[in-house]
Amino acid sequence: MNAKNIQFLRMTHLRGPNIWTYRPVMEALIDIGALEDFPSNTLPGFNQRLTAWLPGLVEHRCSVGERGGFLQRLEEGTWAGHVLEHVALELQTQAGMQTGFGKAREAGPRGVYKVVIRTRHEAVSRRALEAARALILAAIEDRTFDVQGEVNRLKQMVDSLCIGPSTASIVDAASERGIPSIRLNDGNLVQLGHGDQQRRIWTAETDRTSAIAEGISKDKDLTKQLLSTCGVPVPQGKIVDSPAAAWEAAQDIGLPVCVKPTDGNHARGVSLELSRQEDIEAAYDIALAEGSEVIVESFIRGEEHRLLVVGDHVAAANKGETASVVGDGVHTVAELIELQINSDPRRGEEEDFPLDTIRLDEHTTSVLELKRQGLNADSVPEKGRSVLIMRTGNMAWDVTDLVHPEVAAQAVLAARVVGLDIAGVDLVAQDISQPLAAQGGAIVEVNAGPGLLMHLKPGIGQPRPVGQAIANHLFKPADTGRIPVIGLMGDGDTTRPAQLVSWLLHLKGLYTGLACADGLFMNQRKLQSTGGMDWENAQRLLINRSVQAAVFESDVRHLLAEGLPYDRCQVGVVTRMPKAQGLDDLYPGPDEKMPSYVRTQVDVVLDHGTAVLNAADAEVAELARHCDGSVVFYAADEAAPRLVAHAAEGGRVGFWRDGQLILKEGEREHAVLSNKRPAVARLLQDGRLNSDDMLVAACVAWALDISTDLIRAGVKSFPTSPSH
Q1: Which of 206, 266, 598, 664 has its CA 20 to 30 A from that of 377?
Q2: Among residues 479, 514, 532, which one ends one of the domains?
Q3: Contacts of 232 (CB under 8 A, 6+ apart)
């Protein structure tokens, strides 16, 4: 048994579209050694132990295509690499990182496999693969394995490393619209779109969220002043600087009152419906601990509500629920909280739970609430006594469909007065379906960066697509956040065409980035001389807010080792089919595998984009069938069969004829260049460009609707080298 092992030879994070899928994946190169001779159905008790530890494997459809498909494969006999794939995916699922996609393929040498799993964070997937290996070996050797402990460790990693569910809802909604995203830090700062078309979010804050507005929202007294001036109903209040002043202000305003920090959030430090001097003075200290100043306000009767304002409308609304326990004459208040409140499966410590757990040592306002009732954590309430634990509980109850239009309008006005494009407007009303004025309701707070989880996962009621509302707020219906992206791949012959395309876009007036073998360029200025095709360097073009178009040269090595640095492209170019020579460290397989890899460059062409393909290379020409958009074929010889057939069907083609570069669509021909013109002839003689470079660039420019006059002028004026 000890001879059976799974060895990791290498793990590779493919961060962009790759030979497996459009999405980022972890690719593990493994050697299963002696296990190559022991498929799953030959290992005594293995399948039973595996499925007992991970019952969720029944949901894996695998290649069978139905529920239980993977279990069927286990019983029939499958190899350790395939098992590793599914176990790692299941561990990720159990940890809350839904992925689903996986592959396991032989890499060439006997026993060596490439195992691929979809990932949302590199570190989590690395750990999932390592844990999956340990679990499989334990199942083979009939050893114990702490599955739940490993899942919990992975879950902690997901919680701390992956973007939160609120941010994810916006990113997912944007993705459904075809809007790309780039995570900019280890937290929830995310870029939606590319270059000068991008927008940025930080959870529910956007690049439209004014710092001044956010500052106003944190100053509760100033917020109330502004709202009141604009006719929004607000509670009367006064800032105080001592417990005695709080009691004096309460008497002036009229009892009961609420006491809260002027710059607090998430209801921390808020005490409600206070009438006794000792309670108000105690509440002052609680509020001061959560903010820089304390305000005493008139208490508004009714239920607390949170309205999410996005742009010019209310996207969702929730009602708060108080938290209480009922005494049984046996258990203490603290014990009753655990038994009657925290036992609710909707409550938890992690962000993805709709309701929080209640810990008295963390909720000083609850301690004060108990004190007002003559109780503390260790008190044992008599049987049947209701004990109020928290007045400002979670906003758990969705009431979006009940909001009166006038109430919604006042919430939108409140957000606008403060200056927030996205706001959480807190109001108190007895009936949200009625106007505020008639019931003495009021808006009590306007918050920047509101939480979205309460609307995505309400404790009661219908979830609301608030991520979609924010994505639609940031991008007009027809906007995708994309700039023209041009990707080129070949066999060491794409650098000069990439430079020429970049030059043509520059002449068109677009601030253009170029990532190629010669380095990284921004608007014809060289930023660095090396690493231009590296994923991280190339991504700099898409992050730059100035960039209006981007040109990327890629090769098979970077595709296999990192993935493409962009998700989709407007134009995808393949010039020649590369060879596997020099790629042995990446286990590419024979030359015959290259078309299945290079097709990635065509797969990522947008459905309104164009693939520019060499009709003279049969393997390249065959990639046309993988293109979701249109195809432009080119060849030096106008008689190339694939080019002739495409032209006969009305397709666009480019070629040389008697020294003329011709672009043809149907019966229409455009003579773009003559190699006999002095400027063109010099470029060819000097070796700065060859005829194929010009032809490829002209076809790409044509696909980008660059005029033939500009193409002609651009080729003639092509600089010796971009500026440094």
Answers
A1: 266
A2: 479
A3: 410, 413, 414, 417, 443
